[in-house]
Amino acid sequence: MSFNRRFALKAGLAVLIASVPIASPVFAHGPTPQKTDESVVIDAPLDRVWTVLSDFGSIAEWHPKVRAAETGKDGKSRTLTLDGGTITETLDVASKERGVVAWRLGEPNPEALAVSSYNDKLMLEANGDARTTVRWIGRFYRADTSNFPKDGQTDEAAVEAMTAYVRAGLDGLKTYVEGVPSN
Predict the structure, then answer these.
(1) Are 17 and 102 in contact (CB under 8 A)?
(2) Residue 3 confidence (pLDDT) above 60
(3) d(CA 107, CA 145)
(4) Which of 10, 75, 120, 124 is close enough to 99 for a disulfide, judged by CB 3.0 to 4.6 Å?
(5) What's the rounded Cα separation, in Å, for the pair 74 and 106?
(6) pLDDT of 77 over the 80 cut
(7) d(CA 77, CA 83)
(8) What is the C-alpha to C-alpha distance for residues 82 and 75, in angstroms, rounded to an integer?
(9) Quick check: 89 and 78 in contact, CB under 8 A?
(10) Residue 13: its pLDDT value, please?
(11) Is residue 42 a contact partner of residue 131, using CB atoms and an 8 Å limit?
(12) Helix, strand, coil in percent for the chain, rounding step 5
């Protein structure tokens, strides 16, 4: 094979390879972790807020987006009914000493909440004797984890859905706890 023909073949191969799309962030990428970080100040002592939050199954009493909650026999799992269907969650930790309740999504349902997974935690901090700051921190991934997510299952949809869910929960918790008579 002559030098010119070999050169032409190599040059042609190089052009062909260069024209093939390469999987890189420029062209597409999978999901990236998203976050929520919202807080509310509740006009109630930490002990009263803790009493509500330490009952893992009580979320339907104070979260307006949760239509029903069924706690598993172990007390560490729950099935929540939302407008779009049900999801399951598992309790990771509930520590009054650390001021934290943390859980994770077990079975996702994109129709109920536009995420494929999440880890959430509520952190409590006393503000004097009569007020408590509750901070809801979450880390989550969009519902459709493919490179090209469907409408309504994008990072933006997940952020919008989780922010609305968290904000409604904190506002509902504030209203609920402040309405509970003190002992």
Answers:
(1) no
(2) no
(3) 15
(4) 124
(5) 15
(6) yes
(7) 20
(8) 20
(9) yes
(10) 52
(11) yes
(12) 30, 35, 35
Give me the count of residues in the chain.
183
Q: Record the tokens describing residue 2, joined without a space.
A: 């002559």
C-alpha distances out from residue 38 to 71, 155, 158, 182, Å: 25, 18, 15, 26
| Residue in the block written with tokens 């042609």 | 12
- Is residue 181 predicted with pLDDT exceeding 90? no
Tens digits of residue pLDDT in 33-54: 999 999 999 999 999 999 999 9
Match 């990236």 to its residue by tokens.
Answer: 32
- For residue 69, the one-letter residue type is A
Structure tokens at 41: 């100040």
Q: What pTM did the predictor assign?
A: 0.81
Return the structure tokens found at 178.
């402040």
**The two three-digit tokens of residue 60, written as one number:** 């339907």
